[in-house]
Amino acid sequence: MSRIQSTFAKLQAAGRKALIPFITAGDPDGQMTLPLMRALAAGGADVIELGVPFSDPMADGPTIQRASERALAGGMSLRRVIDIVRLFRMENDETPVVLMGYANPIEAMSQELFVAAAAEAGVDGVLVVDYPPEECADFTAALRSAGLDQIFLLAPTSSEQRFRDVATAGSGYIYYVSLKGVTGASNLDFDEIAQRIPKIRAAVGMPVGVGFGIRDAASARRIGAVADAVVIGSRIIEEIEASPRAQILNNVENFVRGIRVALDEQAGT
């Protein structure tokens, strides 16, 4: 059982929902990424999604696009992201880390070298937006051989065939994109989400996390009532942008802790 799978099993046994915060590695600069990961864990993160900056983040809205631009301008690269995970893993052997990004940096490094380096550093899972399950069989096999989970996206427009494809290729959890749009939008249809999640969970046979558009304790609580995990990214990036440097870590940790409390209150734990 992977670290991700073990984490979800423990949460389910305790009647709790997973909190999965996202930050972009290298934002606001490379020196802050490891401390930010510590702050996320201290605030109650169950899984950390660490974004690998890319120059054309097609699924991301303006907020995460700006984070990627800052990170790339500061020299962040896929290899440096992996090095940061290695440092985090030296002090934290419990919190799973998922690298989230795009195919281009992996292809430039080579899938083989990436998988080996990620596994050695202590990465637990990978979510590559533009590797659909029907087009990445070799990558999926390599990840499985290395003991890494491959997380896939599902959307409101996903077909039942895509459900089956993801169930076959994926592991760890499913990331359900809660709206038709990019990260950071806010037009959530909670009724639609509540109807879709049980169907997805039954079809894929693994936990379902919901992201895109969750911005506060109230929306997290409503999503937590039906999903297995809540994913928050753009709102955390906004907190980083708005905070004086000396207050970033404290503000991010407090924000995450507020979401953690809301999820636990919703679950009655």
Instruction: Give the overall shape.
Output: globular
**CATH architecture classification:** Alpha-Beta Barrel
Give me the CATH superfamily. Aldolase class I
Structural class: alpha/beta
Number of strands: 9
Question: Which range best describes the helical content: under 10%, 10-25%, 25-40%, 40-55%, 55-70% or over 70%?
Answer: 40-55%
What is the CATH first-level class name?
Alpha Beta
Low-confidence stretches: 181-185
Task: Summarize model confidence as the mean pLDDT.
Answer: 93
Distance between the termini: 25 Å
Domain module tally: 1
Largest sheet: 9 strands, parallel
Radius of gyration: 17 Å
Number of helices: 12
State the order of secondary-structure elements, H for helix, E for strand: HEHEHHEHHEHEEHEHEHEHH
What does this structure look like?
- The protein has 269 residues and is α/β, with parallel strands linked by helices.
- It has a single domain (3-267), classed as TIM Barrel, CATH 3.20.20.
- The protein has 12 helices and 9 strands.
- The chain has helices at 3-14, 30-43, 62-73, 78-91, 103-109, 111-121, 137-145, 160-169, 190-204, 217-224, 234-242, 248-267; strands at residues 18-24, 48-51, 97-101, 125-128, 149-150, 152-154, 174-177, 208-211, 229-232.
- It has a 9-stranded parallel sheet.
- Helix 2 links the parallel strand 1 and strand 2.
- It is globular.
- The protein starts with a helix and ends with a helix.
